[in-house]
Amino acid sequence: MFSPEGPSLRELAVQALSSVERGYDLLAPKFDHTPFRTPDEVLDAVESALRRTGPFDAGLDLCCGTGAGVGVLAGVCRERVVGVDFSAGMLDVARERGRPAGPPVSFVRADARALPFGDAFDLVVSFGAFGHFLPRELPGLFAQVRSVLRPGGCFAFPLVAPPRPGSLGYWMLLGFDTVMRVRNALWRPPFVMYYRAFRFGDVQRELARAGFRVELHALPEFGRRRDGSPRVRLVVARTPG
């Protein structure tokens, strides 16, 4: 699962016993060599779909990490791109990356629960970060996203279909979440990361409550499951206007 340039087992253990912020500060230099980084295939598919939806002027990458998703925004936005994350270590790595061609890119350290922007963006994207938010935090998170979008703006993120009950993937995710719950019951500070807590029914309901109109776009690059449903969808939540 990890390349030779990735973290050692000891480094992962230290990270897992830290807070979320401190854990990612420690992991940041090697994060791009772990399976936690969003694969390029997903980034490319989302960019392709957003090109059909846009163009956009200003874009925000929410919980940007080392900046992998910034390239998606640079490909579909015309004026500026901003990445925001609460890990200083991840942002340091993001700033050191080569700048993608396109509009100016900047990075801001802030918590997604308290974004320091007005309604300055036409597009907000996020990749692989929602496991760090408990279900009860979704209303506040989506309200923050809504507050930084201009009228008619979009909040877009990929959503992978959950593995079928009884499959290997199902048991792997269930096992991971169980280990994290036991860890958080026994150790402080907590490390919030649950793969099975971000459920589409809850997400769709809370997006609607926050005032978004939700659209679903299949990402054809990933094919369909046996029942015909897409393996990966792009959720596009639009503000009025």
UniProtKB/TrEMBL annotation:
<dbReference type="InterPro" id="IPR041698">
    <property type="entry name" value="Methyltransf_25"/>
</dbReference>
<keyword id="KW-0489">Methyltransferase</keyword>
<dbReference type="Pfam" id="PF13649">
    <property type="entry name" value="Methyltransf_25"/>
</dbReference>
<dbReference type="GO" id="GO:0032259">
    <property type="term" value="P:methylation"/>
</dbReference>
<protein>
    <submittedName>
        <fullName>Class I SAM-dependent methyltransferase</fullName>
        <ecNumber>2.1.1.-</ecNumber>
    </submittedName>
</protein>
<dbReference type="InterPro" id="IPR029063">
    <property type="entry name" value="SAM-dependent_MTases_sf"/>
</dbReference>
<feature type="domain" description="Methyltransferase">
    <location>
        <begin position="60"/>
        <end position="153"/>
    </location>
</feature>
<dbReference type="GO" id="GO:0008168">
    <property type="term" value="F:methyltransferase activity"/>
</dbReference>
<keyword id="KW-0808">Transferase</keyword>
